Amino acid sequence: MFAATVYAQRRARLQAAGLSGLLLFVGNVDSPMNYHDNILPFVQDSSFRYFFGLNEPGLAGVIDADSGEATLFGNDPDVADIVWTGPLPSLAERAALAGLDRSNAYANLASTVAAARAAGRAVHYLAPYRGETLIEMGRLLDVHPAQVKDGFSTPLTHAVVALREIKGDEEIAEMEAALAVTRDMHVAAMRHAKPGVMEYEVVGEMEGIMRRRDWQLAYPSIFSRRGEVLHNHHHDNRLESGDLALNDTGCTSGGGYASDITRTFPVGGKFSPRQRELYNIVLDMQLAAIEAMKPGVRYLDVHKLSARLMVERMSTLGFFRGDANDIVESGAYAIAFPHGLGHQIGMDVHDMEGLGEDLVGYGEDTERSPLFGLGYLRLGKPLKQGMVVTVEPGMYFIPALIEAWAAEGRHSQYINYGKFREYRDFGGIRIEDNVLVTATGSRVLGAPIPKTVEEVEAAMAG
Ligand code: GLY
Ligand code: MN
Ligand code: MN
């Protein structure tokens, strides 16, 4: 947890956004794994944690936007709680950690909300994304849980996004701490991924590094020789010499900030000429994107720049034909790069997307594309100084996609399907870093993680 003043300042800045009424932040509760008392690892709601700091279940925060008073709602531990969970600070002590001098029993939250509404005051809240929160919000607002989302506050969402998307120095330091461990995890994967080893053995080695710090994953690890399956959470293949292994793994720091890193490397330790050729295209796509980033540049345009570079380079190898711009604008390029270039990252790996993807990643004169591929780009709007975004171009040979498009002749003036079929067993490549937008450009966060062909081969040999 940061110093109490950090949370007080964040709440003051939120209050300065000019909303009126109550701003209600309901924290997460424990979620059962398979029965009530057997729980999944606790993950706090990030907006609650951003403004109130506390990383425990069963809390809510209310900011009176008119008076500026903020109150923590929760319960003091009773003896039974202490028997099962050990000594806990009082509610008032926990409130003080977040810079609050007001706390109240959780049982009084519903009447506080009801009194505000009875007085004709607005109660602003963010869109809930968990079933438990929907039910609790339905109770607090006296509406059916299915209707809770209809009433979320767009102005509060905009105000929260405006604050959370600009990272402070203390947040960047947390993200770099997460990246230091993530680096060790990726290097460990490179060293353990020998021919004959099962994917889950490599995953166990990697995740152990994070668990030894009592940290959690930021998202389920993607580690597979079948890297063309974009969110491949299966780890049950045996690695074979000549495979490309794709490793998309990140962790959440003790302070609650995520990393999201992808590296792709050759099982056996040496890229084949064919792998090296395509790997270097993806690397250049990433480096060109990072170079193009600066405040005011739309991430949609950075995505297209990266895609165009891929098309130009793949055209010289015979995969595409025609004008590179047309191939990008038509969406034909997505046969090889069917996802977005990246997304914001912070407390959430896809930062704030629970608040509404388009409210976070679009607007500001930028609309989401309906095209297959580009439509998955979650961040299109102009970059701002202080944003942290992932830059994660990829190139994949997805047999089902190639055959589906070939069968309907989709974009056949641009795509050489015969050439794509020659690579149907190739797999996929993705290279992902977490990048801070600076005043004049960008900076890759964290200590460097082996990325060039030479660096990766050296790390695997080491
Ligand atoms: N790790 C998921 C992603 O890169 O978005
Ligand atoms: Mn990733
Ligand atoms: Mn990502």
UniProtKB/TrEMBL annotation:
Keyword Metal-binding included in the entry's annotation: yes
Gene3D superfamilies for the chain: Creatinase/methionine aminopeptidase superfamily, Creatinase/prolidase N-terminal domain
Stored CDD domains: Prolidase
Cofactor(s) in the UniProt record: Mn(2+)
GO molecular function, one term: metalloaminopeptidase activity
Record's keyword terms, sorted: Aminopeptidase, Hydrolase, Manganese, Metal-binding, Metalloprotease, Protease
EC id: 3.4.11.9
PROSITE patterns given in the database record: PROLINE_PEPTIDASE
Pfam families named among the record's database cross-references: AMP_N, Peptidase_M24
Keyword Metal-binding: yes
Start and end residues of each Aminopeptidase P N-terminal domain: 2-134
Family listed: Belongs to the peptidase M24B family.
Name the record gives this protein: Xaa-Pro aminopeptidase
